[in-house]
Design brief:
The structure holds two protein chains of two kinds. By secondary structure, chain A is mostly helical. Chain A is built from twelve helices and no strands. Chain A has one domain: MetI-like (MetI-like fold), CATH 1.10.3720.10. Chain B has a six-stranded mixed beta sheet with strand order 6-7-8-3-9-10, sandwiched between helices. Chain B has a five-stranded antiparallel beta sheet with strand order 13-12-11-14-20. The complex binds adenosine-5'-diphosphate (ADP) and magnesium ion. The site of magnesium ion has 2 residues of chain B, from helix 1.
């Protein structure tokens, strides 16, 4: 009885939590809803079930090309920014760097520069250097944007890392390279995965830098933006959005599972 | 005794302005249980880490089994270490932890499995091979850390306060097991501790350290019964000190004049001071025999009044106030009888007596 009553009392926090979830997820749920709606117009009432938008999506080479461009740039950026972030994180957590504080803030600056400023300055720099705009220039700008995020994730992971584990591996006969592979890497792996996911996502949906720094190769956000002028293309965009939503759901769940495993491991590395 | 397995030659280590280890020269013999004992921050860990190769000496050279080590990285040194926090690999199970250092051993899978089983037997954890690192108690982690190092068959096993994190009962049990293990395997142990009782229990020899200096190296009994300095005498066990001056040396005794104890006679030893030298007359609390009625003999006797006492179960400690001295004298008494009435009468007179050889003379300046 008692527990039942507490359940039903409109707890302020509960109301807030529900409102928050509705606010976040309701708009997202419109995506799959309208992607199955048999109408060109995104409006109620619904007209009936169809898969034709998904078909159209698969038959739209320019959309798929934009998707592939975004994935390519995202993967390369995720990999490179995580490697850079890992090295930076190792440097600031392991070595007594002179001027450690200023160095960290310097690396973190791109986090707080408005993207539009970053985009314009890069555009100026790149055109001054006579480098043709392409997906490479987009990738470069994303690398700049993502590395501080990677570093943030990895520093927090490495700060809890017990230094004597690496010393133990050295002591047991491994050189520093094998120590990295057999001890550091597996323990930091959850952080690496988290960093790759985060940086991939940032690059994948980044618009401003991509818009300024690409030439004819569109990334997905740019393609979607340009589709808005053609209402017939929009339902297929919804279908694509719904697919991406489902895929990211599984990827993020996997990452969360990895992270939990990591937390458990971390708990045991202390006594 | 035996040949040196580790030789410290002019070793020192500075961290910026901090002198963690000052110019140090000594050797550790093959097969001995050697302890570094000293208060926290005196440089024990630093010395150990220089042997393991994690810190480079500022000056000097460490020889292990005759080989200079300065150019040898930790992974090529014939020593292994048990860390203070054990540093068990969290992503590996017990077997994985123990096998970690055996990658290049050249053993087949089956041979290695057998070796691991033997070592698990040795550390009394048979059947624990597939336990995860998070499924072990503190004592078990300590054993795994030990096994992981021992399977490498090091020439010297380094242990940095390995029992510090364990509770008292477990610590005493592990002390016995460590000692047995060391004798059974014949491996040299270099053991770091700040616990003097632990060092006395375990060691063949102890180096007492203070502020980066090795103060004295001796066996537990020598350190306790005939310490070489006031610092060591004070650090190991308890000691009563009285100021004195040597009045004359005879053929078999030294006469010392003291303000508090009067003139006393001490048997002559090789270390005895010369006439006129200022000394500390040092007597352990348990070597003072209390007498509660006036004794016949007045040699080696001083009278005082009972002060506060403390009951410690197997023994009692009490203080005696002497007329000539502000600081009370500490006396330890075995509680051979159940009645402790004699301790509960403050200010009653008590006579303290000691044997001639109970006194240690230490330099005073
Ligand atoms: N890496 C280091 N950097 C600077 N000072 C250090 C370092 N390691 C130890 N010290 C200093 O050296 C002294 C001895 O430390 P340590 O060897 O750890 O002592 P112990 O193990 O006896 O407690 C201490 O004053 C400590 O602060
Ligand atoms: Mg220490």
């Amino acid at each position: 009885m008692k527990t039942g009553r507490t359940w039903w009392r409109p707890d302020g926090f509960l109301v807030y939590a529900v409102a928050y979830l509705v606010f976040i997820y309701l708009p997202v749920l419109f995506l799959p809803l309208f992607s199955f709606n048999n109408s060109k117009y995104i409006a109620f009432p619904l007209k009936g079930f169809t898969l034709k938008w998904y078909q159209q999506m698969l038959n739209s080479p320019s959309m798929l090309e934009a998707l592939m461009n975004s994935i390519k740039v995202g993967l390369i950026v995720a990999l490179l920014s995580t490697i850079l972030g890992l090295m930076a994180a190792k440097a600031v957590t392991r070595y007594r760097l002179p001027g450690r504080g200023p160095v960290i803030s310097f690396i973190m600056v791109p986090l707080v520069i408005p993207e539009i400023i970053l985009a314009i300055s890069l555009l100026i720099l790149i055109s001054q250097a006579d480098i043709p705009l392409s997906l490479w220039t987009v990738g470069f700008s994303h690398l700049l944007l993502c590395t501080p995020f990677a570093m943030l994730v990895l520093v927090s992971r490495m700060e809890g890392f017990d230094r004597s584990l690496e010393e133990a591996a050295l002591d047991l006969g491994e050189n520093s390279w094998m120590t990295f592979w057999r001890v550091t890497f597996p323990i930091v792996l959850p952080g690496i995965v988290a960093s790759m996911l985060l940086t991939f996502t940032i690059s994948f949906d980044e618009f401003v830098l991509a818009f300024f720094l690409t030439s004819t190769d569109a990334t997905l956000p740019i393609y979607i933006w340009s589709s808005l002028r053609f209402p017939t293309k929009i339902p297929a965009v919804l279908a694509l959005g719904a697919s991406i939503f489902v895929i990211s759901f599984f990827v993020v769940s996997f990452a969360e599972w990895l992270r939990r495993r990591g937390v458990k491991m971390e708990a045991t590395s202390r006594i | 005794m035996g040949e040196a397995i580790i030789l410290f030659s002019d070793i020192s280590k500075h961290f910026g302005q901090v002198i963690a280890v000052a110019n140090t020269n000594f050797e550790i013999y093959r097969g001995e249980f050697f302890s570094l004992l000293g208060p926290s921050g005196c440089g024990k860990t630093t010395l150990l880490r220089m042997v393991a190769g994690f810190e480079a000496p500022t000056t000097g050279e460490i020889f292990i089994d005759g080989q200079p080590m300065s150019a040898t990285p930790p992974n090529h040194r014939p020593v292994n270490i048990v860390f203070q926090n054990y540093a068990i690999f969290p992503h590996l199970d017990v077997r994985g932890n123990i096998a970690f250092g055996m990658r290049k051993s050249g053993l087949s899978r089956a041979e290695l499995d057998q070796r691991i089983d033997e070592v698990l037997e040795l550390i009394k954890l048979p059947g624990y091979g597939s336990r995860g690192a998070d499924e072990l108690s503190g004592g078990q982690r300590q054993r795994v850390a030990l096994a992981r190092a021992l399977i490498k068959q090091p020439k010297v096993l380094l242990l940095d306060e390995p029992l510090g994190a364990l509770d008292k009962k477990l610590r005493e049990q592990m002390q016995i097991e460590l000692r047995q293990l060391q004798q059974q395997l014949g491996i040299t142990f270099l053991f770091v501790t700040h616990d003097q009782e632990e060092a006395l229990t375990l060691s063949d020899r102890i180096a007492v350290m203070s502020d980066g200096h090795v103060m004295e190296i001796a066996s537990p009994a020598e350190l306790y019964e005939s310490p070489g300095s006031r610092f060591v005498a004070d650090f190991i066990g308890s000691m009563n000190f009285f100021e004195g001056e040597v009045s004359c040396r005879e053929t078999s005794t030294v006469r010392v004049t003291t303000r508090v104890l009067g003139e006393i006679e001490v048997p002559l030893t090789t270390a005895s001071p010369t006439t006129g030298e200022r000394v500390w007359v040092a007597i352990r609390p348990e070597k003072l025999q209390p007498v509660f009625s006036e004794p016949q003999s007045r040699t080696n006797t001083v009278v005082g009044q009972m002060g506060p006492s403390a009951y410690l179960g197997d023994r009692s400690h009490f203080y005696v106030h002497l007329t000539q001295r502000e600081e009370p004298v500490l006396v330890a008494l075995q509680n051979l009888e159940r009645s402790l009435d004699h301790l509960r009468r403050p200010n009653q007179p008590v006579w303290l007596q000691w044997a001639d050889d109970a006194v240690v003379l230490l330099p005073r300046d």
